[in-house]
Automatic annotation (TrEMBL):
GO terms for cellular component: COPI vesicle coat; Golgi membrane. SUPFAM superfamilies: SNARE-like (SSF64356). Coiled coil: none annotated. This is Coatomer subunit zeta. It is a peripheral membrane protein. Keywords: Cytoplasm, Cytoplasmic vesicle, ER-Golgi transport, Golgi apparatus, Membrane, Protein transport, Transport.
Length: 151
């Protein structure tokens, strides 16, 4: 009986290979140090490639890694060596598109538009926009981004 495709992990790293957001779905890397080694190794192996226009696929330590870069963000989806690369690529594209939609607010320069977008998404218990400083509003937006990425 065939099983459903499994994503082992999804990684979003910055241009230096440091974590922006990561999610591990299996215990293939049981400790934090093992996870950090994977992230550093995958980043180092792929950083010199040109995965800017289309996703690239590599075999890495018995895993299939599908990845794509945009600006200074590096997107990775890791699956087992028996997974379908097209399905992993579809997961990567969905993740890539979702982050792009979530980060559109950062590309906006009009203050009232940014405030309106943040207000319509709700601030949970963080208070109203008028009661927040700019740094608090950015921290709240960052928290919302991290939560939505890790769901």
């Amino acid at each position: 009986m065939e099983s459903c495709p499994t994503v082992k992990s999804i990684l979003l790293l910055d241009s230096e290979g440091k974590r922006v957001a990561v999610k591990y779905y299996t215990d293939d890397w049981p400790t934090l140090s093992a996870k950090l080694v994977l992230e550093k190794s995958v980043f180092t192996k792929t950083q010199k490639t040109n995965a800017r226009n289309e996703a690239e696929i590599i075999m890495f330590d018995g895993y299939i890694v599908v990845y794509k870069f945009i600006q200074d963000l590096h997107f990775f989806v890791v699956g087992g060596d028996d997974e379908n690369e097209l399905i992993l690529a579809a997961v990567l594209q969905g993740f890539f598109d979702a982050v792009g939609l979530l980060l559109r607010i950062i590309l906006e320069t009009e203050g009232s538009v940014i405030a309106g977008k943040v207000a319509t998404n709700g601030l949970d218990s963080a208070g109203s926009l008028t009661e927040q400083t700019i740094s608090q509003a950015l921290a709240t937006a960052r928290e919302h981004l991290a939560r939505s990425l890790l769901k």
